[in-house]
Amino acid sequence: MRLEPDAVFEVKHRSLCGRIGRIKTKRGYLETPALFPVIDVKRQLVDVERIRQLGFKAVMTNSYLLLKRGFKVGDIHQFLKFDGIVATDSGAYQMLEFGEINATQEEIIRFQEEIDVDIGVILDTPTGKTNSKEWAKQTVDKTLNNAVESLELRNRDDVLWVGPIQGGEYLDLVEFCAKKVADLPFHIHGLGSPTEFLEGYRYQTILEMILISKKHIPPSRPVHLFGAGHPAILPYFVALGIDLFDSASYALFAKDDRYLTPQKTYRLETLTELPCRCRVCEKHTANELRSMVQKQREKLLAEHNLSVLAEELSRIRLAIYQGTLWDLLQNRMHSHPQIFDAFRWMLRRARYLAKYSPITTPSVSGLFAFGYDRPEVILFRERIRQFVSQLEPKRLVILSSKDQVLILKDDWRFDDKTLIMVLDGQFGLVPLEMLDVYPVYQTASRKTKPDIRKILSIINIQESVLVATVDAELYSALRRKLKNVERLSAT
Ligand SMILES: [Zn+2]
């Protein structure tokens, strides 16, 4: 099986820049967004079988540690007793932790091919959090050199290779690295070093890193954010176009007695209840967990944490399918002050996000608007503006509700040079014929007074057009701005 870069990823649905897709691997398809639970072969807290039951089709393990600890691996799937997709990472994380590693890129690539991984990664040099731009530049140069060298070293055509992007918080370096790596034949791209920023709650830094890399990565390649596994912030990363995650956090948090929920992480000692009904929480109370020996407690907490991540991935995929990813971001914005700032950061980029949102979506339940513009609203206003300018109407009738159409004279109602628009708290003005279409019909907004400036920006039309309305207040407001206004009688 030969797997060509740019031919293994297929996108099926979108919401904002988030996508549901599938990646072809030699072991079958992987639906994205997906998260690889990281398997620690020395001490795995959650059985691989349980990981499978929770719906994870792919796992990740560290090839460098396997190599250095001298494991007789053979086939990695048999070794892990996991018949799904196995990804490995190189020694990059260890390099970040210990400064250097004791293996060459050639050894690591050869080893990944020998143990038959489905997704492998070259040996990159992580930037991490550093005050030295000079150092950051060196990590980017080393990563790029290895990326080029790896092309010669790979022997197998059926392994998907990840081309990492480094640069840390130096966005010009991230951009430079993304541009260079995206030019090389990799199947997947990996954005490196977010872990330290995550630990410091510096979400905006990571969002900036994603945004700038995504500008240069072809849409035909999935993007992996290395080492990001907190559920509350995952939807934000997905909304900017991250398709893959890996996480050891479920186990690391468990070792530290931390209990994940979709909104926040609790310390077990503070919990009077377990606000979850996974297999673990169904069978145990918080007190019972606390009184267990650590080893047993860790295992159970890890299983709970992983099930929260599994649920979160499902929730994200469902939101993309239903076109409501924005609502999930809104939902999460109060989870943490830095997530609130991340939401505001996204709000400022709503126009950019709107560009990637589809103009229709398979199944939408309810979109809620809270006074600020959500991307779907921005996108739809653009469509209204285009519609109005193409129609070149001679008369524009503004109604405050759609029932008022009944009081219009027939020669206005059916005249193709008369445009009838209805006031809307969220969209400003909506052409009568667009009231039942997505996303107007699906948007529940609070009744607010129409904003005359917003209205006039939508109906940017010729002076010669007669604007008519029954609404007294609107009539006088329009009179102040436009010449050709008529008040219709409501009888
Ligand atoms: Zn639970």
From TrEMBL:
EC assignment: 2.4.2.48
InterPro entries: ArchSynthase1/Queuine_TRR, TGT-like_sf, TgtA, tRNA_ribo_trans-like
Source organism, top-level taxon: Archaea
Its biological purpose: Exchanges the guanine residue with 7-cyano-7-deazaguanine (preQ0) at position 15 in the dihydrouridine loop (D-loop) of archaeal tRNAs.
Top class in the EC scheme: transferase
Ranges of residues in domain tRNA-guanine(15) transglycosylase-like: 18-337
Family matches, as NCBIfam families: arcsn_tRNA_tgt, tgt_general
Pathway(s) annotated for this protein in UniProt: tRNA modification; archaeosine-tRNA biosynthesis
Gene Ontology biological process terms in this record: tRNA wobble guanine modification
Residues holding substrate: 124
Cofactor note: Binds 1 zinc ion per subunit.
A UniProt-annotated Pfam family: TGT
Gene (name only): tgtA
Residue numbers annotated as active site: 89
Signal peptide: none
Catalysis: reaction(s): guanosine(15) in tRNA + 7-cyano-7-carbaguanine = 7-cyano-7-carbaguanosine(15) in tRNA + guanine
Chain sites annotated for binding Zn(2+): 276, 278, 281
Entry's family note: Belongs to the archaeosine tRNA-ribosyltransferase family.
Cofactor: Zn(2+)
Record protein name field: tRNA-guanine(15) transglycosylase
UniProt entry keywords in alphabetical sequence: Glycosyltransferase, Metal-binding, Transferase, tRNA processing, Zinc
GO CC, alphabetical: cytoplasm
Molecular function as annotated in GO: pentosyltransferase activity; zinc ion binding
